[in-house]
Design goal:
By secondary structure, the protein is α+β, with helices and mostly antiparallel strands. It has eleven helices and 19 strands. The strands form four sheets. Strands 12, 13, 14, 15, 16, 17, 18 and 19 form an eight-stranded antiparallel β-sheet that branches. It has a four-stranded antiparallel β-sheet with strand order 2-3-4-9, with no helix packed on it. A hairpin with a 6-residue loop joins strand 6 and strand 7. Helix 5 crosses helix 9. The longest helix is centred in the last third of the chain and has 18 residues. The two termini are 39 Å apart.
Length: 443
């Protein structure tokens, strides 16, 4: 469990909080590139870590991210005119460029100091992997910025990836904890106990692997630290005296990858971005380093499949807190463990059910929560160190974010770092740019 003070520190990401300041030292996804499809197009509302912002693609195609409130009298710039490489308030015509500098102040005398001193809060942006990233740290326009984290999906051709996002109606930390807790797959995503078959067409694994997960609900966990986080591996009993390993990555401050991928299969990952303390966006991406995704795969992902939720045009999940995830109690009794359709939706249901902000002072952890404990220690240590004046080093190590995770098979007694070395050619899952998958496992 955590103390009340640490639980508060972990979950609060407003601008004046230690965790909020820690998050702001890292590039954060703020929109999908396709949400701003054309220069001088409609602005987009962006709410992130308690800040109300507006994004717009200017006449040169560069994305600006600025305070939603005009500094004149607080009118909402979402209703503004995106023109002439700047956003213009329609109340009195004040116009600002992507750095927040005034371009035109029509009702201000030309010799007034406002022209030189007035600034609209604005954040630098970059586009990587069909995602718009923003840097919200201190003095972003006055110093050299770190590079965007080089997550592998963004380094590949667009044909090799699928990128989307979904709303999550709970605090960011409990949602990412749900992803790092890979032991829950033995229950949450399985058939009802009365169903003998282990097949699940929505799961990213075949029937044999699902059987091993279902039959061994107590995996043995190992954790290896690396420059930007850690990788966790869970070993379960498999056929013929072998061990079935599933590994998942965590990278600061809020990136993770899924554990089921075998060589040749598609990888999946997430990035959690707090909207406020009680909701977040989950940017979800699928990528295959060896081949383009097929039209059938893209169609399946677009409709919701596996860890990719079915969403509406606003990226709100179809099955959500308000409609109780369309839970079917008959289905729960006779077909699936939860009665909720979709792996992503099952995750959301159980994470949301912990409350908008989970009270960690009341929990009783077990050995299967090893990754959850390491996650908390890692981010809390980073936020506390920053509060003491020690800047995090991970943002400067952008290449170290090129990480993979997935499944492998090994004999009893083989260590986790050796498993990772066999699976990825690196003991913690780093992959060089352009690397292909190793040969498929044969078990």
């Amino acid at each position: 469990m955590l103390s009340a003070a640490d639980n508060d520190l972990l979950t609060r990401t407003g601008a004046g909080t230690p965790m909020g300041q820690f998050f702001r030292r890292f590039w954060q996804p703020v929109a999908l590139s396709r949400e701003l499809p054309e220069p001088d197009g409609a602005p987009l509302r962006v709410n992130i870590m308690g800040e109300r912002l507006v994004a717009f693609r200017n006449s040169d195609g560069v994305v600006g991210l600025v305070d939603a409130r005009c500094p004149h009298r607080g009118a909402d710039l979402y209703f503004g005119r995106n023109e002439s490489c700047a956003i213009r308030c329609v109340f009195h015509g004040w116009q600002f460029d992507i750095q927040g500098r005034p371009v035109e102040l029509p009702n201000v005398p030309p010799d007034a100091s406002y022209h030189d001193t007035l600034r609209l809060k604005a954040y630098p942006t970059r586009e990587y992997g069909e995602v718009v990233w923003a840097y919200m740290g201190p003095d972003p326009w006055d110093r050299d910025l770190p590079e965007v984290p080089q997550l592998e999906f963004g380094s590949l051709p667009a044909s090799h990836r699928f990128v989307t996002k979904k709303l999550q109606e709970c605090n960011w930390a409990q949602s990412i904890e749900g992803a790092l807790d890979t032991s829950h797959f033995s229950f949450l995503h399985m058939p009802a106990p009365c169903v003998r078959s282990n097949e699940n067409p929505d799961a990213p694994a075949d029937e044999k692997r699902l059987r091993w997960i279902r039959e061994d609900p107590l995996p043995e966990f190992s954790i290896l630290d690396h420059e930007v986080g850690f990788v966790v591996g869970g070993a379960r009993r498999a056929d013929g005296g072998t061990r079935y390993w599933r590994s998942a990555q965590f990278a600061l401050p809020s990136h993770s990858t899924t554990p089921s991928t075998l060589p040749g299969e598609t990888h999946f990952g997430y990035t959690w971005v707090p909207i406020d303390d009680e909701s977040c966006w989950i940017y979800t991406y699928a990528w295959n380093p060896d081949r383009p995704l097929t039209d059938d795969e893209r169609a399946k992902f677009s409709e919701g499949h596996g860890v990719i939720a079915e969403v509406d045009a606003r990226f709100f999940p179809i099955r959500n807190r308000a409609n109780e995830y369309l839970i079917d109690r008959t289905h729960q009794k006779h077909i699936s463990y939860t009665g909720v359709r979709g792996v992503a939706e099952q995750d959301a249901m159980i994470q949301d059910s912990q409350g908008r902000i989970h009270d960690r002072t009341q929990e009783h952890l077990s050995a299967s929560d090893a990754a959850v404990v390491r996650f908390r220690r890692t981010v809390l240590a980073g936020a506390k160190a920053l509060a003491r004046g020690a800047e995090p080093e991970a943002p400067l190590k952008h290449e170290a974010y090129r990480l993979r995770s997935g499944s492998w098979f090994a004999s009893e007694g083989v260590s986790f770092d050796q498993v990772m070395l066999e699976r990825f050619g690196d003991a913690v899952g780093h992959v060089p740019a352009g690397a292909r998958e190793p040969a498929s496992a044969t078990r």
